[in-house]
């Protein structure tokens, strides 16, 4: 690591450590419309990790991706739980507009989050950090939680995998930012106690 890069990282962590949890880590004006939330509380992956480290058990960090994503792409080690905001129905049709299988909102998302947080002694005024693949689903999940009365819901704007490169040799690949690209702790080995395992 170069001395300049080391100093930049040190400066970032000093700035982050001085943040109050009520202060926006990212300026809402710089967040793309698809990733904006009603609460306007945003962090990038590095800031999410720092916020969770700072608050510990006083913050609840949720991976809101589908079960398939978590199973095949891995999960952040710092996450407290995996609760999908959307999920593929059992016999998913093809979504022509978005070029993927249909995703339905998980009607158990709010209740499951409330159960998990209550078990940790947390409530709707405590800090919640949401992360999806790249920041749009976590924004929609944050909006739902606001409607349910949560007041401190942060969306990780670059998500677990990051944004797509627009040009260059890696165009179309998620190599720009995000949890994995920031080399933050994650694993393919999943902790069953954190996973969403609905009883049918």
Q: How would you describe what is shown here?
A:
This protein is α/β, with parallel strands linked by helices and 200 residues long. Helix content is 28%, strand content 16%. The protein has a single domain, classed as Rhodanese-like domain (Oxidized Rhodanese, domain 1). It contains five helices and eleven strands; from the N terminus they run αβαβαββββββαβαββ. The protein has a five-stranded parallel β-sheet. The protein has a two-stranded antiparallel sheet with strand order 3-11. The protein has a two-stranded antiparallel ribbon with strand order 5-8. A hairpin with a 4-residue loop joins β6 (94-95) and β7 (100-101). Residues 55-172 form the Rhodanese domain. It comes from Keguizhuia sedimenti.
């Amino acid at each position: 690591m170069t001395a300049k890069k080391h100093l930049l990282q040190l400066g970032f962590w000093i700035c982050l450590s001085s943040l109050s949890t009520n202060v926006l880590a990212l300026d809402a004006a710089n967040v793309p419309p698809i990733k904006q939330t009603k609460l306007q509380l945003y962090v990038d992956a590095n800031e999410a990790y720092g916020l969770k480290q700072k608050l510990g058990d006083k913050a609840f960090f949720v991976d809101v991706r589908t079960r398939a994503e978590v199973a095949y792409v891995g999960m952040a080690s710092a996450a407290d739980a995996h609760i999908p905001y959307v999920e593929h129905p059992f016999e998913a049709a093809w979504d022509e507009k978005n070029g993927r299988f249909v995703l339905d909102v998980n009607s158990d998302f709010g209740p499951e989050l409330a159960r998990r947080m209550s078990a940790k002694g947390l409530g709707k005024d405590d800090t919640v950090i949401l992360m999806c693949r790249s920041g749009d689903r976590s924004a929609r999940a944050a909006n739902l939680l606001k409607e349910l009365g949560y007041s401190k819901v942060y969306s990780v704007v670059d998500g677990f995998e990051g944004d797509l490169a627009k040009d260059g040799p890696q165009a179309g690949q998620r190599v720009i930012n995000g949890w994995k690209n920031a080399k933050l702790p994650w694993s393919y080995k999943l902790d069953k106690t954190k996973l969403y395992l609905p009883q049918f």
